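Hi team,

As requested, here is the filled-out complex form for the 3-methyl-2-oxobutanoic acid run. I kept the field names the same as last time so the parser does not choke. Let me know if anything looks off before we queue the next batch.

— J.
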Amino acid sequence: MKNTVVTIQQAKEQGEKLTMLTAYDYSMAKLIDEAEINLILVGDSLGMVMLGYEDTLSVTMEDMIHHTKAVARGAKNALVIADMPFLSYQTSVYDAVCNAGRLMKEGRAQAVKLEGGQEFAEHIQAITRASIPVVAHLGLTPQSLNAFGGFKVQGKTEEAARKLLQDAKAVEQAGAVAVVLECVPAKLAELVTKQLHIPTIGIGAGAGCDGQVLVYQDMLAMFGDFKPKFVKQFGEIGTMMKESFRKYAQEVKSGEFPALEHTFKIDDDVIEKLY
Ligand code: KIV
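And here is what came back:
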């Protein structure tokens, strides 16, 4: 069944958990889609896990459009959400609408995600008015890494917790169709989830959210640079891949690969004429 902004809202109302994973290319999107994951996020985490930057700040609109196009071609039923990269929406409401529009028109995303709360309510409203569904992202918002002074859990003091709750209500009011809560204490995420009508999708925000999201390289143990506390590794795919690459190298060097079944034939008399 095709996932849409309507079906994810129904899931919240019926108490059904939502699943979201990141993807950045066609093959992975296809695998995730075939596994019946509800939502695929083309995250700006691609800057780190695909492009090797140390944070998400250098990701461009062109990067996002390029990867979103590939994912959209692979996803039949999952709802494809594209991240708005750093400075593609913060600069003005006009930029926000134009760039959100490019992610839909050129990238073929079905929704966009942007980081921030009340301060971007006007942007969310304007993008929504242009018929582009918006997912908001609160808590640890990696594009604000330098303002936070590092990757840290957010909303731990009373003041910070109140601000997060207010931000969540403000983005809902502005028209957001869902909210990602990243690195937020579990009890606070649960409270936000109870107070919102739209679904919350947690990453490092406990089991009380309406859904969960992980970066696929993290959950498959394919990204060894660091492992956040909230990541569960559901498969040792990184190790399996390295072993397979080594085995391939050994077999090429020993002459075991390619074998007869991997080669194409030609009639001997054709070859003999070439000698
Ligand atoms: O960019 C990303 O992958 C994200 C998720 C971690 C939520 O924003």
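Two things worth flagging: The longest strand covers residues 134-139. The pocket of 3-methyl-2-oxobutanoic acid is lined by residues 22, 41, 43-45, 83, 137, 180, 182, 203, 213, 215 (CB under 6 Å).

Thanks,
J.
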